[in-house]
Write a structure and sequence with these properties.
Strand order of the largest sheet: 1-2-7-6
CATH class of the domain at 37-123: Mainly Beta
Oligomer: single chain
Shape: extended
CATH topology of the domain at 37-123: Immunoglobulin-like
């Protein structure tokens, strides 16, 4: 057990990307859509006052190919685009699902794409639909 080594986040990310590339090569051999996503990392999520902010770096992806869907406590980012490599059309697809730590006001969510990064602002609900209930002894 003393010989076990803990992997860093960078090592795990690098391995995941290499495995994604291997699957893409396999998919291209059979003319299937490729699933390799061109992201520099995972979604960053933090709070700014009463707003959650999510940031995702997307290299060389057209903002028109990106879709953002927000449910009460879930953020879904998807992209699908076609590129031509060596005369062959390839479909690239990715999807990221994030469970949010609290409910958000879906009608007030905003998203902007700047310098290859998608930033989504999610205003938190003022009420979390839960309440402390006092028990009365009779």
């Amino acid at each position: 057990m003393a010989d076990l080594k803990r992997w860093s986040h960078g090592e795990i990310t690098r391995m995941r990307l290499e495995i994604d590339k291997l699957f893409d090569e396999l998919c291209s051999d059979f003319d299937l859509p490729e699933m390799f996503c061109r992201m520099k990392g995972d979604i960053e999520l933090w709070e700014e006052g009463n707003t959650l902010v999510a940031r995702l770096e997307l290299c060389k992806i057209n903002p028109d190919d990106v879709t953002v869907v927000v449910l009460e406590q879930q953020l879904v980012i998807t992209a699908e685009f076609v590129e031509v490599v060596r005369g062959r059309r390839r479909t690239r697809v990715f999807r990221k699902d994030v469970r949010l730590p609290c409910a958000v006001r879906t009608d007030e969510v905003s998203a902007e794409f700047t310098e290859g990064a998608l930033v989504v602002r999610l205003p938190k609900c003022s009420s979390q639909y839960s309440q402390f209930v006092r028990i009365i002894k009779k």
